Amino acid sequence: GGPRPLPGQEVSVKVLGALEDGGLVERDPRLIFVPGHGDVVQALELGVPTMQPGEVSFFLAGFPYAYGHPGSRRCTTRDPDVPPEAPLLFEVTLLEVRDGPDPQPLPPAVRLRLGSQRRERGNFHFARGDFAAALRSYRLSLRALDGPATAPPGPEEEEELREQRVKCLNNCAAAELKLGRAEEALAACEAALRISPDNGRALLRRGQLLAEQGRDADAALALRRALELDPASKAIHTELSRLTKRQNPPSST
């Protein structure tokens, strides 16, 4: 009984997940998440909003809506690994629906965990070819990393926060490119370089994007700096060679 979850509301569910042979691979007596935030597999993202509090549902999820082609290797022995391309049967009990929480100050370690979790969900969506969902997860990861903290991070935590932000911004750029949004991709690269001016991945992509816009001088600067950092990179050599040939076309006889 009661209304189904609305967009932005937080839910608590009890989850059991089993393979076709009946082996349990998921067991969580109280999983809390906001549908749409990319924190759980797609089967739960799509299925739980159809439920009412107190309802028990079974979702048979094909592997694209579970753990995809690669499956899942667990970091602990609590649950076994999920094999590649494994369909799963989920038994889900919707325990509670609440209004979404306001951003709360979190310890740096929790911000790091949430940021990493959401970025990994973004990578999962990217691998499936769902680039809009990947971008949404990457942005949520950045929101967690940039959120208010209960205490200033220590030097090691600050460095890890910085590294995760740069990874996330690079991933945002890749997703934006897949969605055909070159300007947004360039903005993400430049945001990454403001944090880490010598990030090779961001420099290479920035050079490629600037070259596509015809800004050859700026593109060459970015690509040459990337080459200084990684002289053996074939991708950078290829981009610089392409740019040089365009700037100096062979003369015709």
From TrEMBL:
The keyword Repeat applies. InterPro entries: FKBP4/5/8-like, PPIase_dom_sf, PPIase_FKBP_dom, TPR-like_helical_dom_sf, TPR_rpt. It comes from Pardalotus punctatus. It catalyses: [protein]-peptidylproline (omega=180) = [protein]-peptidylproline (omega=0). This is peptidylprolyl isomerase. Keywords: Isomerase, Repeat, Rotamase, TPR repeat. TPR repeats lie at residues 200-233. Residues 8-98 form the PPIase FKBP-type domain. Its EC number is 5.2.1.8. One of its GO terms (cellular component) is mitochondrial envelope. The lineage of its organism: Eukaryota, Metazoa, Chordata, Craniata, Vertebrata. GO terms for molecular function: peptidyl-prolyl cis-trans isomerase activity; protein folding chaperone. GO terms for biological process: negative regulation of apoptotic process. Pfam families: FKBP_C, TPR_16.
